[in-house]
TrEMBL record:
Name of the protein: RNA-binding protein KhpB
Record region (Jag_N domain): 5-55
Keyword Cell wall biogenesis/degradation: yes
Main location: cytoplasm
PROSITE patterns found in the cross-reference section: R3H
Keyword Glycoprotein appears in the UniProt entry: no
C-alpha cells in the first residue's frame, strides 16, 4: 500500500497535498492525523504544522486500474482508465484514440481482458466483485447492433417459415438476442452446440 506523510499549516492543506501527490480522490484514501497544528505560544514558541499520513486504499477498482495500466504500457497503448466502483460491481471504461486493438474481432480481445482483470483482482479476496470492462462505449453499441439484428432475423424467419441460424456468439451476446426477442409470440429462440461454437436458432412458431 503506497503511503506518504505531509506537513502543512492545516490538516486539510496537508491532506490535499498528499492526495494530489498520490493522484487519488479522498474516497480512495485512508487518512491518519499524526499531529494537529498549534499556534505560537505567547508569541515566543514557534507554531507546529499539521502532519498527516495518507495511504491508498487497496480497493478492487484500484487493483484493476493498476493492472490495466501495466497491460496498456506493455501493449504501448495510451488510454485513460475510468473506474466506477459500487457494492458488488466495478465498472471500467477505457477512453482514448485508436483503441480497436483492445476490442478485437466482435469484442473477443475485450472479453479476454475483462476475464484476466476479474481473475487477477479477485484472487484471494473474501468478497469477489463483478468486473465490467468497456472501451469507448463499445458494449452499448454492440448491444444495440445485436438487438436490431435479432429483430431483422426474426422477421426473416417468420416470413420464410424456416429456422435462421446465427453465427456462434459468447454467452453475453446470446443473452442479448434471447432478451430482445422474448416478447415476440411468433418466433422462439434456443441455443445449440458447445462453447465456443454455441449458436442461437431463431425458429418461427407453427400454429
Amino acid at each position: 500500500m503506497q503511503t506518504i506523510e505531509k506537513t502543512a499549516k492545516t490538516v486539510q492543506d496537508a491532506v490535499d497535498q498528499a492526495l494530489y501527490e498520490l493522484g487519488i480522490e479522498r474516497e480512495n484514501a485512508e487518512i491518519e492525523i499524526l499531529e494537529e497544528p498549534s499556534k505560537k505560544l505567547f508569541g515566543i514558541l514557534g507554531a507546529k504544522p499539521a502532519r498527516v499520513k495518507v495511504s491508498i486504499k487497496n480497493t478492487t477498482g484500484l487493483r484493476a486500474k493498476d493492472l490495466l495500466g501495466n497491460v496498456l504500457r506493455a501493449m504501448d497503448v495510451e488510454a485513460e482508465v475510468n473506474i466506477q466502483e459500487e457494492e458488488g460491481n466495478v465498472h471500467i471504461n477505457l477512453e482514448g484514440s485508436d483503441l480497436g486493438v483492445l476490442i478485437g474481432r466482435r469484442g473477443e480481445t475485450l472479453d479476454a481482458l475483462q476475464y484476466l482483470v476479474s481473475l487477477s483482482v479477485n484472487k484471494n479476496q473474501e468478497q469477489r466483485k463483478k468486473i465490467f470492462l468497456d472501451v469507448e462505449g463499445y458494449r452499448r453499441r454492440r448491444e444495440e447492433t445485436l438487438q436490431k439484428l435479432a429483430m431483422k432475423l426474426a422477421d426473416k424467419a417468420r416470413q420464410r417459415g424456416r429456422n435462421v441460424v446465427l453465427e456462434p456468439m459468447n454467452s453475453l451476446e446470446r443473452r442479448i438476442i434471447h432478451t430482445a426477442l422474448q416478447g415476440r409470440d411468433d418466433i422462439a429462440t434456443f441455443s445449440e452446440g458447445e462453447e465456443p461454437y454455441r449458436k442461437i436458432i431463431i425458429a418461427p412458431k407453427k400454429y
